[in-house]
Amino acid sequence: MAEDINDTVEREEDGYELDNRKVSAVRLAVAAGDAERLSEVLDPLHAADIADLLEQVDSGHRREILLLGATHIDGEVLSELDESIRDEVIEFLPKNVLDDAVRDLESDDVVDLIEDMEEPQQAAILDVLTDADRVAVEQALAYPEYSAGRLMQREVVAAPEHWNVGDAIDFLRSNKRELPEQFYHVFVVDPKMNPIGYVTLGKLLSTSRDVPMTSILEDSFKVIPVTQPESEVAYAFNQYHLISAPVVDDEGRLVGMITIDDAMIVLDEEHEEDILRLAGVGEGSLADRVIDTTKQRFPWLFVNLITAILASLVISQFEETIAQFVALAVLMPIVASMGGNAGTQSLTVAVRAIATKDLTGSNVWRVVRREALVGLVNGSIFAVVMGVVGVVWFGTPMLGVVIAVAMVLNLVIAGLAGILIPVTLDKFGIDPALASGAFVTTVTDVVGFFAFLGLAAAVLI
Amino acid sequence: MAEDINDTVEREEDGYELDNRKVSAVRLAVAAGDAERLSEVLDPLHAADIADLLEQVDSGHRREILLLGATHIDGEVLSELDESIRDEVIEFLPKNVLDDAVRDLESDDVVDLIEDMEEPQQAAILDVLTDADRVAVEQALAYPEYSAGRLMQREVVAAPEHWNVGDAIDFLRSNKRELPEQFYHVFVVDPKMNPIGYVTLGKLLSTSRDVPMTSILEDSFKVIPVTQPESEVAYAFNQYHLISAPVVDDEGRLVGMITIDDAMIVLDEEHEEDILRLAGVGEGSLADRVIDTTKQRFPWLFVNLITAILASLVISQFEETIAQFVALAVLMPIVASMGGNAGTQSLTVAVRAIATKDLTGSNVWRVVRREALVGLVNGSIFAVVMGVVGVVWFGTPMLGVVIAVAMVLNLVIAGLAGILIPVTLDKFGIDPALASGAFVTTVTDVVGFFAFLGLAAAVLI
Lengths: 461, 461
Hints:
Two copies of one chain form a homodimer. By secondary structure, the first copy, chain A, is mainly alpha-helical.
């Protein structure tokens, strides 16, 4: 035991990051075919770090590590692995190692592991489980994807409402084998199995045996419907600082519980999704192959091509104007680019505020007005700057006026588009992080080029 | 009690979101000066929802709510409030309400509340606290900002290593007044107060009294240095699924603990910071005034103006070419825009991977190669598409060739810039989320215009 602890503390001082030295050590051990040395490096690593290690090396190395160090790949490592390489790892693990790893997992982790697998692969994994576990997994899979039902664990500790603290403690003592691996609350339920509150283990430990459970319930507690989307679950945990929460079915009966560590993972994934979707990247990880990454990025680039061609069509309406006055071609990207950036600013704030439920029907018009005003103020400042640049650079005062007016106009429109487009998409049930960017830049490009070139055609020629 | 529970459950069914009906009800009550009605609406709301409500109304309404419903603004509401309006709220709260609210808070929440305040305001709040609490807060403020020391709570439950389960339970029973409000582990410490492991409360409850504490320690446990940045703390909680972790000083002595709910808040804030910085928004919230928002967004727009002018300077080198061949002005934004988008894609993936420690020295060159290849493949596809568009639209085969070549070149460069720039910034200790965007678009604009117009000048004229 003492040795284990030293290992842990020593590792701690290195910082959390799986560092280069460890990755190199693994590479060397694998290159030398030295299973013992490999074990020495992998042994002190947390499952999450072993998973990261497997994600960071290329697929050739990965295969060698799996062959030489298979025994280190337990259930926990499997459930930490990024989906993109989990299938590959499962394929290359010796059957007996895989079976052990799967048996090792809690039912909610098995669900997470197999929910995206093809039928035959799924069946092969289910076969390994005990009957009780298999039933639990199959029931979880019956709930909609990304729902609380998929996220929850079925093992909970529930106490009838007539129990006192002593009853609950005696129950825990005599059922230690069936207790969840981690739990933080005892849920108190009525005779219909509806949860009516919970008691923290700390309170349970520090309260006399004869006190009724119902008199030490926590002030606030949240019940999660089994069909609730996991993103809402994560929001509730973050908003209300929940540690664990009971999950109930349609009739309000306790069917499982969700703990904050799982909610934190969902929150993290939701953020990742938002940030990647805003950049038009779709899902994807660094471990993906070139062809997969290319495919993920193609659609958004294609959408961008369409919007860019639209902008070009606007420009082509003014070919004659440009031919007479080439300075327009030099300056026009500035107006469009400033609009695009201002639009992205508003858009990002709006998308984030929608995700955190800070932007609602009750304040949307105030925010719209604010965005327009911000566009107006910043637009005016940059209009003056660019007006001066236009005059100084090209010596044509009217050109300065044209670019200034176009700048103000485009920055106001950018502010409005940046908020109205995501709000509208959200109303129609479309994820605003996914689609807003293309719409907003189309608007700012078209407005930017049209305002600048149109004004120029009217005024300069 | 029964009524409270009904309230909670009823509220639950409405969903988590503070809905419009409630905001309207508050507005109506305030307009009518009806304090009783206001209480009826605010009473069942969670502190986090009252805080959201205050953020969503404008500052006139906010003041009226504070006057009429001051008693509902307790410590918890204060600590849930967004910083941008917390100062305003504190200013308008009656002194006695504020004092009660502050006394209500745990020491870590007081720290969070006052760390950004001016000296006199800070002193006014510290004065309200008991001596013990004030000392605790002042000690926390002595740690660096955004460090584990600021985030931790000082109340912990520690057990000497020679205790058995019975000793620990007896200690909890006889010290219930001094226990932290929420705790999930008992930390086991050696005689020097160095933590050597922890025991979950669930294990404590289900184990016989005579079992030594050291024999039921959890497998893995993480110690957090008091000076560690809070972003690293949040990473560790998420990576290793920690629920609570001991915080230690330079000599490894236990000085406090951090719980997952606080780590989750930090993780959420870090994400918000990343997503807003990527869009060049800086800090800021919807509750900010127009002038504040304008100031936050101005710097990035200014940087963008500089990069746009740089791009214009490149274009101006080719004025003669454009004058002879106006189609170039029509098509050139397409090349730049595609490059900008592809660069943003790579950049976002890279920034996110750096944040999650998935992009490290051990795989950076593989990722760079991958980005270049993805740029090459997508660039080639779009080169063909645009080549055809160029020929069909303008009937000049060489124009098609020029745009195709420029497209491939810019997408490869975009992929490289999108990964190399954030990695380099990170190496120099600059947050890649903050500064990468400007660099990457400068590169793709300059390369896009230069390649396209330069090739055109060489080939077409």
